Automatic annotation (TrEMBL):
One GO term describing the cellular component: cytosol
GO biological process: ribosomal small subunit assembly; translation
Entry superkingdom: Eukaryota
Domain Ribosome maturation factor RimP C-terminal: 136-197
Protein name: Ribosome maturation factor RimP
CDD domains per UniProt: YlxS_C
């Protein structure tokens, strides 16, 4: 079976360099798949799609198992073109999941999926939560999230604009590099106002 190397993106993630999954997580805008759930029945609120592959039933069960241990809920599980997308909520209706929750569930669920070899092909695991965003500030952040979708805003115009959306390509002492639709752009760090992770569909 062909397997892809995976790279965990948060500090809680270890570089497994194993098997079929690569793991990413982003915020998502609110919508039908991100509706709030409350109470003990919240983990049963995921969507059911009759066209889903047969292994998704087991994936949902394992996602619920992992979420329960972390006081999280599973709002939706989707399979699209080799990508497994899991939307989560918090068991406490007054709280919203943060990046740490996403990374923890991604690690836990990923291990369960690998142990049972549930998905028979290479895939990407993406854990999201409504409205989640993360500001990248340090060199370590820029290294950890290299290759991830970001929005960079600048304090003044650079190459005719003040906002750049693309994949974080790298950094140096003097600049942040971003791949905007295949075009590499180097932005002086002295102009960078904010670098924020965004969901993959916005790139």
């Amino acid at each position: 079976m062909q397997r892809n190397n995976c790279r965990h993106a948060f500090q809680l993630f270890l570089n497994y360099n194993l098997v079929k999954r690569s793991i990413r997580f982003y915020g998502c805008s609110s919508g039908p798949s991100c509706s709030e759930t409350t109470g003990s029945s919240a983990t049963k609120s995921f969507e059911v799609n009759q066209s889903e592959p047969i292994f998704i039933t087991r994936v949902k069960e394992l996602a619920e198992e992992a979420a329960l241990d972390l006081s999280l809920t599973i709002q939706s599980v989707r399979w699209t073109g080799g990508k497994l997308v899991v939307y989560i909520g918090h068991a406490d209706a007054e709280r919203k999941p943060n990046v740490g929750d996403c990374s923890a569930l991604s690690t836990s669920l990923g291990k369960l999926l690998d142990e049972e070899d549930v998905i028979p092909s290479s895939y990407q695991l993406e854990v999201s939560s409504p409205g989640l965003s993360e500001v990248l500030k340090t060199d370590k952040d820029f290294s950890v999230f290299r290759g991830f979708p970001v929005r960079i805003t600048t304090s003044e115009e650079h190459k005719g604009k003040k906002e750049f959306v693309g994949k974080l390509a790298g950094h140096s002492l003097d600049a942040i590099r971003v791949n905007c639709n295949g075009k590499m752009t180097k932005i002086p760090r002295m102009l960078v106002k904010q670098v924020v992770l965004i969901e993959s569909g916005k790139v």
